[in-house]
Every structure is written in C-alpha cells, then in structure tokens.
Amino acid sequence: MVSRRLVRKISKGLPFPQGTQRNREDDFDFEKVLDHNRSLESLLTPVLHANALLEAELARETALLEVEESSLKELETNAKTEASLRKEAGRKVHFLLQANNLAPEDELMDNIGLRSDDNSAVAAIELTSFQVKPDHNLATILNELDGHVDSIQSNIGQVQGIAEAVTRSKAAVQATLFEHLERSEYEKVILG
C-alpha cells in the first residue's frame, strides 16, 4: 500500500530534492557520494582545528586580561591609598611649612633685607635703617659674613648640576641593564 502511493506520487511527478552533483546520476553513485563526503571532511578538519586553536588562544588572552585587570585594580587602590596618606601627612605638617604657605625665595630674601642689586650682602643691609651706629667690629663681622656668603654661593654653583647628572646617569645605566638583562635579573638588580 505504501509502495503504491509512492509509485503513484512519483508517476505524478513528485520532485526529488536538489542534487549535490551536476549530474543527477552522480547522486545515486555510492562511491562518488563517499568521495565527495571525504573531500568535504578534508576541508572541514583544518577549519575545526583552527577554530580550536583560536578558542585556546582566546581563553589564554582572557585569563591574561583578568590578571592584568586585577593588577590594575590593585595599583589604583594603592595609588588612592598613597594619595590619601600623603594628604593626611600634609595635614599633619605645621601650617607654615605646608606647600601653599611657602613664600617664594625672592620674597623671603626681601623680607630679611638680604636682597641687593649688586649681589653683595653688605650693600643690602642698611645699618641706618636699624638705628645702629657704625661699629668697626660689626663692619668686620659683616665683611666676614659677606665672604662666607660668597663662598657658599660659589660652592652651590659648583654642585648645582650634580643632581641632574646623577639622575641622567642612573637612567642611562637602568636603560642599558634593561636592554642586556632578562626581566627577572633586571628586577633583581634594580630592586635589590
């Protein structure tokens, strides 16, 4: 009964599904169908392998990203903590020593009367403004003090660029070590 219905429908022109080959007969040749399936499987295998490799790489990068995000959060937390500690320490400093209360050096020099146009401390101090009579001993002490100030200024001039030179040298040494050492050795040398 089923076969009669099938024969009747086929005879009426029931369409077959679309063929996978150009020739309709090739769809019914078992060997050709197997060969075609093998060729499709050979194309599918590298794609599946590449997909598995990409998924593994994605998992590795995701894990690395999570580690870096946790490190970033820790650094941000440490930075906020350090900023609050610095702010708290700044509050504990005497109000005259706080950064916003410090006067510029020129203003301080003017306030104590050591500012002069010819860079001489003796010329800047006017004894008459202090209602002091000229004294030979005081003049001698002022001359000695002027000599000491000049000596200090010349010594400061000699060592003025040393801090910058040391900083540049340290940076150059660290850069050279970074280029020639592995990361663990570099950290061991720099951090101790």
Structural overview:
It is a single chain. By secondary structure, the chain is an all-alpha fold. The chain is 71% helix and 0% strand. The longest helix is centred in the first third of the chain and has 63 residues. It is rod-shaped and about 145 Å long.
At a glance:
This protein has helices spanning 2-12, 30-92, 105-111, 121-124, 136-159, 162-180, 183-191.
Main sheet attributes: strand count, strand direction, barrel closure: none
Using the alpha-carbon principal axes, give the shape. Answer: rod-shaped
User: SS-based structural class?
Assistant: mainly alpha
Low-confidence stretches: 119-124
Radius of gyration from the CA trace?
45 Å
Question: What's the SSE blueprint?
Answer:
Elements: H1 2-12, H2 30-92, H3 105-111, H4 121-124, H5 136-159, H6 162-180, H7 183-191
Features:
192 residues; mainly alpha
